[in-house]
Each structure stands twice: as C-alpha cells, then as structure tokens.
User: What shape does this take?
Amino acid sequence: MGRTLIHNVRVVEPGVRVGPGSVLIDGRKIVHLIRDENAKVEADERIDGGGKRLSPGLMDVHTHGIHQALYERSPEDFAAAAEACVQHGTTCVLPTLYKVMNRKSLGLLRELTAAMKAVSTCDFPGFHLEGPFLALPGAGAETLPGDVGLLAEVYEACDGQVAAMSISPDSKNIIAVIEWLVARDVVPFITHTAAYPEQTQEAIDAGARHATHFYDVFPVPRDREPGVRQCGAVETILADRRCTVDFICDGVHVEPIAIKAAIAAKGYEGVLLITDSNIGAGLAAGVYDTPWGFKVRVRDGDGARHSEHGWLAGSALTMDRGMANLFKWLDLPAEQVWAMGTSNVAKMLGMKHKGVIRAGADADLVLWNDNFTAARTWVAGKCVYQA
Assistant: This one.
C-alpha cells in the first residue's frame, strides 16, 4: 500500500487541539503526526487536504440501521450499511440488535455474525445487543428477567462478537448478567429503566458504567413520599463520576439543555454522541418502507416518524449531523466537542487505537468539508469514500 501523507490540513486531536499539520499513514496505521508544516517527510503518495479539518473517524455505538439498511433484518444489509456509514464520516460502528436475542433467532444471529465479519468498508468490532433483559419495552423491546443461560447461548451464536449489551438495573436477576458480561469484556449499558437509586447504584458497582440514549426511556420512578420528588437512575448516573452517558443529538429525542447538564456533571469526557438510527437515517426528505408494517416519514431536523400517526419511529440522525448539532449547541473548545464522537467513545469501549490521531493508532480518518460533510473517508488506511 505504501506510505501516504495527508498534508495541508487542520488536524483534529480530540481533547487536545485542532491545528495545522499533516498525518503519515503506512498500511493500516498512522505512523507519524507532524505538527511542523515545513517538515520534510518521505511518502509514496501525497494528498493535499486543501486546509480542511482531518479528524479520527466518528464512532457510533448505538445504531440499528442507516439509509434503507437494517442490521437485524438480513446479512445483505451489512454491506449496504457500511457503505452508507462512511459517507457520513463514521468509520467504527456497533451494529445494534433489538428483536433477535432469543432462542428462535440463534441461526439468524450466526448468519448476521458471518456477514458482520465479512465487511471491510467500515469497522464493525462487535454487536451491541439492546436487550432482552430490559425493564421497560420502549418502542417494543423484550422485557425478560436476567438469564445467564440464554445470554451464553446468544453470545455463542454471535461467536463472541459482542462489544456491548444494554440492560436495566430494575430487571430481575440482572446483577448476575452484568458480572457475566464484565468477565468477558462486554460493556454493559444502562437503559430502558425506572430504577430507584439503590438498584442503579448496585448495577454501577457491579460494572455497568455507561448509560445509552440517556433521558430516553429513563422515567422517574414511582414516588415513595407524596410531595417529595423521587430520584432515580438519571440522578444516580449523573452523580457517579465513573459513569459515562450518550445522547441522541438530533434536538428531537433530547433537549440540548440535558446534554449541557450532563457536561456540567461529568465534564466533556463523560458525554458521547450516538444516533440510535433506523431506516430513513441520512436519506432525503420523503416516505420510506420498513419491515415493521408501516412507512416512516423523514424530514430535515426531525426524527423518523410514522407516516400516518406522526409518532417517533426511531432516529433519522447520522453522526455527521449529530456533530454539527453539538457544535451549534455547545460553547466548548472544538477539540472537546470532537471528542464526543471519537476519543470518548473509544475510551468507553477500551479501544486504545481508535478515536485518536497519533503514532500507532488505526488509520481511520475523515477529511471534512466546512458544512460537516465528509470529503474523504479512510478505514484502516484505505480510502473507502470520496465525495
């Protein structure tokens, strides 16, 4: 493949700086970050970035689909989703499954796992299983009590390719599930919960240190004392600095003030961007078919909505639009905002070579136009998209 130098760019070092420089790639890795614009560097190929920003690729840990692809529908959807993701500057994704974590679907899980492993356009390091051990159904999730036996069967069907699993602290037998996941380096996400503080704290202490689509399906638990506002999972998670949170940053699912409150409690390092996207995400305004027996309507600045009834039917967000929203809403240094879609995500997952630009890191990079659209995207040193 040879050595490629991307020069004349403003290099985004998440959490550190955004400034002039160049990046040298050799094979799948970054071998040198050069901050001196006048430094002489030998390379087989030179790419002039035209003064654009060069960032690590965005990382989405909660997404069910994009464009017209849905991860749990069929193996064929993985390749289509991968091509769509890199168009939006997303290079690392946890394909999120919702309805197929059961014994009837073990064969399908094996097929989906094989399809996920075959993709090279985008990096799919493992599934995010949203359920089935959840306390509240939300948009129709399973609500089973914790069952380590079922979990082991699902994990085996996925050939161990599970990076995260969403659970609820108020699900029966959930602590055994959390401990089983932590022992296998699977990150437990808290969600779909009306847990009391004691339940939430027990789950955190057992190893559940991240909350996904925070504020969405996190209702206040039932009052214990009339006239006293009851605290629940939201307050417990915000109060524990070990916990990180992520938000659907479309301006529809969560008020921006909630994101600002989380940053005030945790600092920028503790807040992540996700899409929770579904069919329709990243598409032009219009009405699109789904496998759920209804159509969704997509409009700019809105979620995907049931075409007849108007209720939310998932997110139509892509990561590039989420980043643009964060820059519009937050008064923070640029390098801190960039971290919410890159290095913060990688740290939460324990991926030391993702989400950063430095020697030894994976060469997953995006060259950005001024309007937060991707001009070029690289995955493992290979250019997989050029506008």
